[in-house]
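Pipeline run #58 for the internal structure catalog. This entry was flagged by the ingest filter as a single-chain record with no existing model, so it goes straight to prediction. Upstream metadata was stripped on purpose; only the residue string is passed forward. Reviewer on rotation: M.T. Logging verbosity set to normal.
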Amino acid sequence: MKTASIFLLAFIIIGAPALLTAQEPELISETSKVVDYFNIAAEVHPPKEGARDVMAFGGIVDINNPVTQDVLAAGGTVLIQDSVGGDVRALANKIIIDAPVEGNVAVVGNNIEITPKANISGLLWVRGDNVVMNGNIAGDANIKAKSFEQNGIISGELIHEEISSSQAPTNAFAWFFSLTSFFGMLVVGLVLVSIWPKTVRRAITQSIKNPTHDILWGLGILVATPIAIIVLMFTIIGIPLAFILGAGLLVSLYLAKIMVGIILGTYIFGAIRGREIASKYSLLATMVLGVIVLWLVTGIPGIGWILKLLAMIWGLGLLVNLKLNTIKKVESK
């Protein structure tokens, strides 16, 4: 699944301009307009009047209304039950494509089904455990799966690689843990940007201007805190403080990855839309995009752990400086 994450990351980055390009909404009736749709919830449905681009994350993502352009979705279950005018990119435990797709389809999951209604006009790229392909594919198909059943027609070239079943239990556990961690980061990030949007945006802006300052602070805290905990553990009265410091460090490292995710999302928006527009763009959308990309790149074999460590150091320094600046403001009042 780590290899799959690399390729899905490429699809997301390539398709990001389509999701972020500002265009005038297209009319679909006299009283309503097609708009971009973004949501994080237990169960997600696009509006009945349809949507232009959809970015959705939840326990169940059900695309049961038409989408004129692209769909980017992740969750426990992703259902495509109405037509999609562009590309579909999905990451979920269960994925069912049961409607026409005019563009390409790139999906990663455990159980993937492409029904006879799913006429895909572009390419098909699949990574999963159990894949059933009953639809028609106009382009090429690249499928890597533990089990693969084909009843539909693939007009282009089919590349099929079988995944070893002996690795399935380990992969499934790792996949579940990683996916749970990912959604946990999204939920915590949602709380952060909802409760303290101005504070978070200000901290992100300052950190982007001077990342070295935050990285040095983060490295110092990451080295000094474990040493302080060990020293305190050798004293009786210092044991409670050692536990508090340890818990605080773990929480801070978790929040650090989310903050760096927001930084990464800001960079991506800035590269696509311009730095000035990116600084005013939806903080929630920035957080989601950045956390997705960070989660994927830290899963790259070999270098993923290095990227994760750098992210935690940078984010930890950002949080420390944010706390110090907050204390200074309080004391100055």
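catalog note: Residues 2-163 form one domain.
catalog note: Residues 239-273 form the longest helix (35 residues).
status: ready for reviewer M.T.
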